[in-house]
Amino acid sequence: SGLHFSGSGGFEVTSGGVANAVLVTEGDVTVLSGGTASGVVFAGAAAMTMDVAGTANATTVGAQAFLIVESGAQASGTTVQSGGFEIVSSAGGETGATVLNGGVVIYAASSTVQGVTVSSGGAAALPLVISATQVFTAGVVTAMTTISGATLMSGAWEDLGFADIQSRGVASLTSGALAAAVTVELGGKLS
To answer: Which of 34, 42, 142 is nearest to 82 (CA)?
Structure first.
């Protein structure tokens, strides 16, 4: 509790273990199934990753840091700052995250996302299904929008992550928009 970790090798939290209020400025963190990390803050100048198979509460994901919530894992109260990334895998969960200006969240299909707020300038790449005759344009939203468990404030980016563009479905990206792990089926179009 209240530790500052700066080791290049990183550390792991095993089943039954708890990491509480740790400041990480270098190295990666692994939270194994049954482990819990609470109040971990990434604030280094180098790229860092927190790989969660257990539980992560109130994580602060700073610039160049990645929070990866694996299948079956649960994160809550995450804050994604400018330059930080959160990726929630299929069957992973996130509740109550806040994505600030310059932060990015990417949610896989079959992930469980609730109460996520994306501020103006933040970005959410969502697992949308774009079916026949639907047209979707990824870019900045001009009014508050709630979709797939996330509320995007005016000025936030609505992007494509793990999306499925089905036959005769159409998606386009405005300048600066993001597409990650998108599937374009036969007859679908992404431009």
So the answer is: 42
Q: Which amino acid is at 42?
A: F
The one-letter amino acid at 115: G
Q: Which residue type is seen at 120?
A: S
**Band of the pLDDT at 26, cuts 50, 70, 90?**
confident
Instruction: Identify any residues that bridge with 64 across adjacent strands, giving them in sequence order.
Output: none
- pLDDT per position as a tens digit, 83-118: 999 999 999 999 999 999 999 999 998 999 999 999
DSSP-assigned beta bridge partners for residue 135:
170
**DSSP letter assigned to residue 26:** S
Cα 126 to Cα 161: distance, rounded to the nearest angstrom: 5
Tell me how far CA of residue 189 lies from CA of 113, 131, 176, 184, in angstroms. 27, 11, 19, 7
User: Which residues lie below 8 Å from residue 191, measured CB to CB, with a gap of 6+?
Assistant: 170, 171, 172, 173
Which uninterrupted H or E stretch holds 115?
none
Query: Measured on CA atoms in the order 162, 163, 166, 168, is the torsion positive or negative?
Result: negative
Tokens standing for 178? 């993001």
